[in-house]
Amino acid sequence: MKELKPEDIKIIVATDCGSTTTKAILIEKHGDEYRLIVRGEAPTTVEAPFEDVTMGVLNAIAEVEELSGRKLLDEKGQIIKPAQNGVGTDIYISTSSAGGGLQMMVAGVVRSMTAESAERAALGAGAIVMDVIAANDKRLPHQQIERIRHLRPDMILLSGGVDGGTLTHVVEIAELISAADPRPRLGTGYKLPIIYAGNKDARETIKKTLGDKTSLDIVDNIRPVLERENLHPAREKIHDLFMEHVMAQAPGYRKLMSLTDAPIMPTPGAVGLIIKTIADLEKMEVIGVDIGGATTDIFSVFQGVFNRTVSANLGMSYSISNVFAESGLPNVMRWVPFKMDERDLRNRVKNKMIRPTTIPQMMEELIFEQAIAKEALRLAFIQHKSFATTLKGVQQQRTIAEAFEQSASGQTIVNMMTCNMLIGSGGVLSHAPRRNQAALMLIDAFLPEGITRLAVDSIFMMPQLGVLSTVHPQAAKEVFDKDCLIHLGTCIAPVGVEKEGKEILKYKFILPDGKTEAGVLKYGEMKMIPLAVGETAQAHLEPERGMDLGHGKNKNIETTINGGVAGIILDGRGRSNFLPADENVRVKKLKEWMLALDIYPKWALER
Amino acid sequence: MGHAYTPGLKVTGKMLITKKRILPLKGEVLAKVGDKVQPDTVVARTFLPGPVEPMNVANILSIAPEDVPYFMLKKEGEKVQKDEIMAKAKTFFGLFTSVCKAKAEGTIESISSITGQVLLRGNPVPVEVHAYLVGEVVEVFPQEGVAVSSWGSFIQGIFGVGGETNGEIKIVVGSPSDILTDKEIDENSKGKIIVGGCLVTASAINKAISAGAKGIIVGGLDDKDLRDFLGYDLGVAITGSEEKGITLVITEGFGQINMAQRTFNLLKSNQGKLACINGATQIRAGVIRPEVIIPIAGDVKIKEEKEKFESVGLEADSPIRVIRQPYFGKLGQVKDLPPALQKLETESTARVLEVEFDSDGRAIVPRANVEMLEE
Question: Which three-class secondary structure string do you get for B176-187?
């Protein structure tokens, strides 16, 4: 690995090797700022007949070379490093999710305590968690053994017990793993890596139980005491093993590892890292979502705590039918402003599942797909909220008042009122024909409260910026701010319940040209006020009685509002059950909102 | 960049088909190169490790875990029969004796003095791999399995349910636009692979199962009928392990869609012949589609001309099928491939093509929404 000081790094090439496409970006320092210059892509070459990931990487870089005019590859097709005389790059870095990414199984003693901590560590490291085995997961031991045997994970993270606690349960889980004799997913000539991050007193016994059959690594306990999680050592070890075992087994990765100037990161781990970095730098609470064809990942940072969840079967193509099955037809159709035949719809969804690469040609199909996306996002967000919680099983001292509130440990830390920014990525959001559609999908699915900025990652550059943040945080932040996000605008949503049509917010915006936009928002109404990307407006907001914008009920707010492609979106739908039950009224309201926000062309809503 | 079209499903009258028949674990290969095989010929065999039955002996005998090894009558590696006493403890000055009987027949794999748990490994489970095709073994992978080759007609479906099976082809409809109902199925369907037209009804599937038919090949299936047939709403297209008593191969998609004429004609010309079918579908990276193979006699040593089957991508006059609304299921030929992106009704821009439908008329469709008809 080359030692370059951050100030010496002026040219950066970064790639993300996805399952189907390898994406390369070129970042250059001009004057004092780092900017994205171009982006290129090429098919990933992990599978036969190529079986060498670096071919796709070099092809993607060659496209960057063509588009930018900067020579990056030498005659032998190798990356020129460091940059000299206008050719080459100072550093090259990469992420990867090719070949199925990092697939893990985690195990712990109590499902909601150590096993959940292990799950959090694995997800945070960018893994797909195939299963969580726990002593109390309601499966019989032989069923657990069968399950472990059938899964072929890349590695297992085993936790359990606080330091100094009982040994029996965690050793029992280790015995089950040993009996199952699990095999690694890739490669046949090596033992399955297992990370033990449990009670330190059980280490010797765990070594005896698993040491011969597996490749065992021991790190500090993930839950040394009930009141505290210590995820970092386990996450670091996961990343090390990902490089040593998983990546090294995938075709061409040894070569790729020799090319990069920083360890290759799993793609979702890198996305999580950039979101956490930005949240920390800007002191923001953030939710990021990536909705793909098969899965939906949600990342959040609240109270300084980073959480990631993967909803494995909520996606827009391979898993679209599952979204439909989990959500139910009525929940999808409540977002559609016209009637459609149920039998026909069900067949259409299944046809998208079996031919996942097709795109909507007709407007009604687009509207229907966006309705499904809202449900996929909503369901994934429910899962995320139930996972991003305070630690469970922690003893709390409570006052009488708290006891009456019935609050327990394990409450979600996701708070839509304090969420400052909602970032979406993935085809259905990033490639929506109108950006306003992406804004409304995010609003309807996540129901932001108070004042929330909305953005989409236009070209899915977050993975590369995540790994860049490990080498050069400043460059990563600058490119993230200026080139990665397309700002959609700001959603202002007072929370409370009122009668339809009742005034709930008085607003006044002083726009950049000095003009004032003032008015009243009624309950059940949506409005849009143009405010371009990069512009800000001074806002004076007066919520009516019982309505809250973040400073408490009826409390006025003076603040600066950021613009975007859509502008300022005033959402007066309260927040609970805002969709009318009566179908005709619902359709009328949907059309009204969609017209107000210019979501679809008028003709499409007049049918 | 990658091609913006779906490569399409193969439907071909004659090609050399090779299938690897591999064991899930290393074992014994029973066939050798040159052996002629039938679909049911066993070509390789192995034993999967038996199921594990954990027994907490410490709890059963009410003793401390560390005392378990002391009270065990059987040691690690020894065999036990079901209900055989494998541990015995005397308590209360030897007045009371408690015993622990084996829950199942097997071998003692481990005895833990930390948890008090004893793991009993059941007897190995035999697994056999069949040849699947009528053909010849062309390669042996020592301890793993074989490759079987056969010349045959080959039809790739779009979606299927159920695993490998075989039977005689029986066409029960007059044309690819006919619906396959229960009226077309009778006791003569036993052991057959039934071929329908544009749709199969739920009652037809049920009647086929009760009549003992092995499989159904049909153009379309309603999602509702699939749900009723499976008993659940299929979330992701990963199938093949269902045990429903029949294998389904859907050639076109969900809904009422005429089976492609060429597919229907090919099946019709093979009426009465043996077909080997598999409904296994996996629509993810490393896609698996269901298949129909009709083996034909021929020398498997003669290599086919590969080029003939290689796709060249979309070009003028390429036969295609539209795979999305508003022209879903329509067949036609490519007339034009304008290079510039075009705006669709949805307001998004995409690469498109102009198609002339077999049934008359032309239309512009996104290239992503067509698949080539491959031969």
Answer: CCCEECHHHCCH
The 10s digit of each residue's pLDDT in A376-397 is 999 999 989 988 888 876 765 5
Q: What is the pLDDT of residue B93?
A: 73
Write the single-letter amino acid at B226.
Answer: L
Nearest CA in chain B to A328: B233
Residue recorded with tokens 């049920």: B206
The one-letter amino acid at A457: D
**Which residues from B are below 8 Å from A347, CB to CB?**
222-223, 253-255
Which backbone phi and psi does B232 adopt, to 5 degrees? -155, 165
What CATH number is given to the structural domain containing A193? 3.40.50.280
Structure ipTM? 0.87
Are A518 and A593 found together in one domain? yes
Pull the structure tokens for residue B362: 């032309």
pLDDT at A150: 79
pTM tops 0.90: no
Each residue of B307-361: pLDDT tens digit? 444 445 688 898 899 999 999 988 899 999 998 889 999 999 988 999 999 888 9
Measured between CA atoms, the residue of chain B closest to residue A99 is: B285
Give one DSSP letter per residue of A62-93, joined into a string.
HHHHHHH----B-TTSPBP-S-BTTBS-SEEE
Query: Looking at domain B158-289, which of 3.50.30, 3.30.980, 2.40.128, 2.60.120 is its CATH number?
Result: 3.50.30
DSSP alpha helix (H) spans, A472-555: 473-479
- Kindly state the DSSP code that residue B123 receives in the 8-state scheme: P
Residues A225 and A207 in one domain: yes
Nearest C-alpha in B relative to A101: B285
Place of tokens 């472990």: A148
Report yes or no on A471 lying in a domain: no
Residue A298 has pLDDT above 50, yes or no: yes
Distance from CA of B217 to the nearest CA of A (A): 17
Q: Does the pLDDT of residue A213 top 70, yes or no? A: yes
Number of residues that this document lists for chain A: 607
Give the N- to C-terminal CA distance of chain B in Å, as an integer.
24
Q: How far is CA B304 from CA B8, B18, B298, in A?
A: 21, 12, 11
Q: Are residues A340 and A210 in the same domain?
A: no
Which domain does A62 fall in, by range? 6-98
E strands, A292-356, are 296-302, 305-311
Asked if A366's CB is within 8 angstroms of B368's CB, the reply is no
Residue B6: list chain A partners with CB under 8 A: 355, 357-358
> How do strand A91-96 and strand A11-17 relate by DSSP bridges?
parallel
**Final residue in a domain of this structure, among A200, A230, A253:** A253
- Minimum distance, in Å, between the CA of residue A144 and any CA atom of chain B: 10
Average pLDDT over residues A157-184: 89
Fold classification of B52-122 (topology level)? OB fold (Dihydrolipoamide Acetyltransferase, E2P) (2.40.50)
Q: Give strand pairing partners of A424.
A: A289, A456
| Confidence at residue B310, expressed as pLDDT on a 0 to 100 scale | 47
Task: Indicate whether B2 pLDDT > 80.
Answer: no
CA distance B337 to B353: 5
Taking only the tens place, the pLDDT of each residue in B7-48 is 678 899 999 999 999 887 778 999 999 999 999 999 999 887
For residue B284, the chain A residues in CB contact (below 8 A) are 294, 318
Alpha carbon distance B228, A320 (integer Å): 19
Which residues does residue A503 pair with via DSSP β-bridges, in sequence order? A522
For residue A265, tell me if it sits in a domain: no
CA distance A51 to A58: 14
**CB contact set of A171 (below 8 Å; sequence gap of 6+):** A202, A205, A206, A209, B112, B114, B115
Does pLDDT of B5 surpass 50? no
Residue B292 contacts residue B157 (beta carbons within 8 Å): yes
Are the C-beta atoms of residues A167 and A143 closer than 8 Å to each other?
no
